[in-house]
Write a structure and sequence with these properties.
Blueprint: H1 5-11, H2 23-63, E1 69-70, H3 71-77, E2 83-87, E3 94-101, E4 106-113, E5 118-123, E6 130-131, E7 134-135, H4 139-165, H5 179-183
Antiparallel strand pairs: 1-5, 2-3, 3-4, 4-5, 6-7
Protein backbone atom coordinates (compact mmCIF):
# COMPACT_ATOMS: atom_id res chain seq x y z
CA UNK A 1 0.00 0.00 0.00
CA UNK A 2 1.52 3.03 -1.12
CA UNK A 3 0.22 6.29 -0.09
CA UNK A 4 -0.45 8.89 -2.54
CA UNK A 5 0.82 12.40 -2.19
CA UNK A 6 -2.75 13.64 -1.96
CA UNK A 7 -3.47 11.66 1.17
CA UNK A 8 -0.33 12.95 2.97
CA UNK A 9 -1.24 16.53 2.34
CA UNK A 10 -4.75 16.04 3.54
CA UNK A 11 -3.52 14.69 6.89
CA UNK A 12 -1.71 17.96 7.73
CA UNK A 13 -4.00 20.76 8.75
CA UNK A 14 -3.79 23.83 6.65
CA UNK A 15 -1.82 26.68 8.33
CA UNK A 16 -4.01 29.48 9.57
CA UNK A 17 -3.07 32.86 8.29
CA UNK A 18 -1.63 35.16 11.06
CA UNK A 19 -3.91 37.89 12.21
CA UNK A 20 -2.38 41.26 11.63
CA UNK A 21 -2.19 43.46 14.76
CA UNK A 22 -4.03 46.60 13.97
CA UNK A 23 -2.08 49.80 13.66
CA UNK A 24 -4.32 51.41 16.24
CA UNK A 25 -3.46 48.73 18.81
CA UNK A 26 0.28 49.17 18.16
CA UNK A 27 0.06 52.93 18.58
CA UNK A 28 -1.81 52.57 21.88
CA UNK A 29 0.78 50.07 23.17
CA UNK A 30 3.69 52.32 22.28
CA UNK A 31 2.02 55.38 23.81
CA UNK A 32 1.48 53.41 27.03
CA UNK A 33 5.15 52.30 27.07
CA UNK A 34 6.36 55.87 26.48
CA UNK A 35 4.16 57.22 29.30
CA UNK A 36 5.39 54.49 31.66
CA UNK A 37 9.02 55.28 30.81
CA UNK A 38 8.36 59.00 31.36
CA UNK A 39 6.89 58.35 34.81
CA UNK A 40 9.85 56.16 35.78
CA UNK A 41 12.29 58.77 34.46
CA UNK A 42 10.66 61.62 36.43
CA UNK A 43 10.66 59.58 39.65
CA UNK A 44 14.28 58.53 39.15
CA UNK A 45 15.34 62.11 38.40
CA UNK A 46 13.73 63.46 41.59
CA UNK A 47 15.26 60.75 43.76
CA UNK A 48 18.74 60.92 42.25
CA UNK A 49 18.81 64.75 42.38
CA UNK A 50 17.98 64.72 46.09
CA UNK A 51 20.51 61.96 46.77
CA UNK A 52 23.32 63.73 44.87
CA UNK A 53 22.61 67.03 46.65
CA UNK A 54 22.55 65.28 50.03
CA UNK A 55 25.82 63.48 49.27
CA UNK A 56 27.65 66.58 48.03
CA UNK A 57 26.51 68.60 51.07
CA UNK A 58 27.73 65.86 53.40
CA UNK A 59 31.10 65.73 51.65
CA UNK A 60 31.48 69.52 51.78
CA UNK A 61 30.60 69.68 55.49
CA UNK A 62 33.06 66.88 56.32
CA UNK A 63 35.81 68.72 54.45
CA UNK A 64 35.32 71.87 56.53
CA UNK A 65 37.08 71.96 59.89
CA UNK A 66 34.14 73.54 61.73
CA UNK A 67 31.53 71.40 60.01
CA UNK A 68 29.74 74.43 58.59
CA UNK A 69 29.81 75.62 54.99
CA UNK A 70 28.69 78.89 53.44
CA UNK A 71 25.13 78.79 52.13
CA UNK A 72 26.31 80.13 48.76
CA UNK A 73 28.58 77.09 48.40
CA UNK A 74 25.63 74.80 49.14
CA UNK A 75 23.50 76.52 46.50
CA UNK A 76 26.11 75.60 43.89
CA UNK A 77 25.75 71.90 44.72
CA UNK A 78 21.97 71.68 44.34
CA UNK A 79 20.99 69.12 41.70
CA UNK A 80 17.74 69.23 39.74
CA UNK A 81 15.12 71.86 40.29
CA UNK A 82 13.60 71.56 43.76
CA UNK A 83 10.97 73.87 45.17
CA UNK A 84 12.14 75.88 48.20
CA UNK A 85 10.29 77.03 51.30
CA UNK A 86 12.05 79.41 53.72
CA UNK A 87 10.84 79.67 57.31
CA UNK A 88 12.01 82.88 58.99
CA UNK A 89 9.30 83.09 61.65
CA UNK A 90 11.25 84.93 64.31
CA UNK A 91 13.55 82.04 65.02
CA UNK A 92 17.31 82.28 65.44
CA UNK A 93 18.16 80.05 62.46
CA UNK A 94 16.42 80.07 59.08
CA UNK A 95 14.96 76.76 57.93
CA UNK A 96 15.26 75.98 54.23
CA UNK A 97 13.05 73.12 53.04
CA UNK A 98 13.85 71.76 49.57
CA UNK A 99 11.40 69.41 47.82
CA UNK A 100 12.04 67.32 44.73
CA UNK A 101 8.64 66.20 43.43
CA UNK A 102 8.37 62.80 41.81
CA UNK A 103 5.17 61.26 40.50
CA UNK A 104 4.72 58.89 43.45
CA UNK A 105 6.86 60.43 46.18
CA UNK A 106 8.29 63.78 47.26
CA UNK A 107 11.94 63.81 48.34
CA UNK A 108 12.90 66.29 51.09
CA UNK A 109 15.96 68.07 52.41
CA UNK A 110 15.84 70.52 55.31
CA UNK A 111 18.73 72.62 56.51
CA UNK A 112 19.38 75.23 59.15
CA UNK A 113 21.28 78.40 58.24
CA UNK A 114 22.56 80.73 60.97
CA UNK A 115 22.86 84.54 60.98
CA UNK A 116 26.32 84.33 59.38
CA UNK A 117 24.84 82.47 56.36
CA UNK A 118 26.50 79.17 57.27
CA UNK A 119 24.75 75.82 56.88
CA UNK A 120 24.78 74.36 60.39
CA UNK A 121 22.96 71.03 59.96
CA UNK A 122 20.64 69.17 57.57
CA UNK A 123 18.41 66.11 57.27
CA UNK A 124 16.00 64.42 54.85
CA UNK A 125 12.84 64.40 56.95
CA UNK A 126 9.63 65.92 55.58
CA UNK A 127 8.78 67.77 58.80
CA UNK A 128 9.49 68.05 62.49
CA UNK A 129 10.53 70.42 65.27
CA UNK A 130 14.20 69.50 65.03
CA UNK A 131 16.63 69.28 62.13
CA UNK A 132 19.11 66.47 62.72
CA UNK A 133 18.39 66.74 66.44
CA UNK A 134 18.92 70.51 66.62
CA UNK A 135 15.95 72.47 67.93
CA UNK A 136 15.20 75.95 66.68
CA UNK A 137 14.38 78.55 69.29
CA UNK A 138 12.76 81.94 68.93
CA UNK A 139 14.63 85.19 69.45
CA UNK A 140 12.41 85.97 72.45
CA UNK A 141 13.17 82.60 74.04
CA UNK A 142 16.87 83.17 73.40
CA UNK A 143 16.72 86.59 75.09
CA UNK A 144 14.85 85.06 78.05
CA UNK A 145 17.47 82.30 78.29
CA UNK A 146 20.34 84.84 78.20
CA UNK A 147 18.68 86.96 80.89
CA UNK A 148 18.06 83.89 83.04
CA UNK A 149 21.72 82.82 82.73
CA UNK A 150 22.92 86.34 83.56
CA UNK A 151 20.70 86.41 86.66
CA UNK A 152 21.96 82.99 87.76
CA UNK A 153 25.57 84.13 87.33
CA UNK A 154 24.89 87.32 89.28
CA UNK A 155 23.25 85.33 92.10
CA UNK A 156 26.12 82.85 92.09
CA UNK A 157 28.71 85.64 92.26
CA UNK A 158 26.79 87.34 95.08
CA UNK A 159 26.75 84.08 97.05
CA UNK A 160 30.48 83.50 96.56
CA UNK A 161 31.72 86.94 97.72
CA UNK A 162 30.56 86.70 101.35
CA UNK A 163 31.80 83.13 101.55
CA UNK A 164 35.29 84.22 100.48
CA UNK A 165 35.43 86.99 103.09
CA UNK A 166 34.43 84.83 106.09
CA UNK A 167 36.07 81.56 107.09
CA UNK A 168 34.24 78.52 105.95
CA UNK A 169 32.06 76.73 108.48
CA UNK A 170 33.56 73.54 109.81
CA UNK A 171 37.13 74.91 109.85
CA UNK A 172 38.43 75.35 113.34
CA UNK A 173 39.38 78.85 114.22
CA UNK A 174 43.11 79.39 114.54
CA UNK A 175 44.28 80.39 117.96
CA UNK A 176 47.55 82.01 118.61
CA UNK A 177 49.71 80.30 121.17
CA UNK A 178 52.51 82.11 122.81
CA UNK A 179 55.90 81.02 121.63
CA UNK A 180 57.10 80.48 125.12
CA UNK A 181 54.56 77.77 125.79
CA UNK A 182 55.32 75.95 122.59
CA UNK A 183 59.06 76.13 123.23
CA UNK A 184 58.79 74.79 126.80
CA UNK A 185 59.49 71.12 127.28
CA UNK A 186 56.59 68.93 128.20
CA UNK A 187 56.59 66.90 131.36
CA UNK A 188 56.33 63.26 130.82
Amino acid sequence: MSSTPDSAESAKPAAKPKKQVSTQRRVISWVFIVILLGVVLLEWRAKSSQAKTFESLGTAMEAESGGEIPFAQFEETIQGSPSVEIDETGLIMRLYHYKWNGIFKTYHMRLLVNDENLVVTYDALPEGDTVNGMRRISKKSMQDLVEKNKQELADQNADQKPAAETPAAGEPAKTETPEKESAAPKDE
